[in-house]
Write a structure and sequence with these properties.
Number of helices: 2
Distance between the termini: 19 Å
Largest sheet: 4 strands, antiparallel
Strand order of the largest sheet: 3-4-5-6
Shape: globular
Order of helices and strands: EEHEEEEHE
Structural class: alpha+beta
Strand content: 15-25%
Helix content: 10-25%
Number of strands: 7
Length: 113
């Protein structure tokens, strides 16, 4: 998956882009870790409960220049991309996804595109 100016997860109609106010320390303060290639990655579980380890994971990777990003929702092991929006069974995961994204928007990491 290539980095793009605006990105979304499979099935979602809302696109996001990196906020112009975002700095490297802003990303680190919000849970992003710097990868060996200089990008910043955030992985958050979308489990129904914190004890459950079988749910989906949200992966957001922002390029080192802080201009482009890529996003996906994957299986628990991170190997397969999933669409949590095609089934009512994943309503809790959808709600958690939007909660996490709203948090990133309120902290000036991302913005809606």
């Amino acid at each position: 998956m290539a980095f793009k100016e605006k990105a979304t997860v499979e099935g979602s109609e809302i696109f996001y882009k990196v906020n112009e106010k975002a700095k490297k320390y802003t990303l680190k303060d919000n849970g992003f870790t710097e990868t060996n290639s200089g990008n910043f990655q955030l992985i958050r579980p979308l489990d129904a409960t914190p004890q459950s380890k079988e749910g989906f994971k949200l992966k957001i990777t922002i390029a080192g220049d802080l201009k482009t990003l890529k996003m996906s929702v994957t299986t628990a092991n991170g190997l397969k991309s999933m669409n949590i929006f095609k089934s009512e069974n994943h309503a809790m995961s959808q709600e958690k996804f939007y909660f996490l994204m709203d948090g990133m928007i309120s902290r000036d990491v991302l913005e809606k595109a």
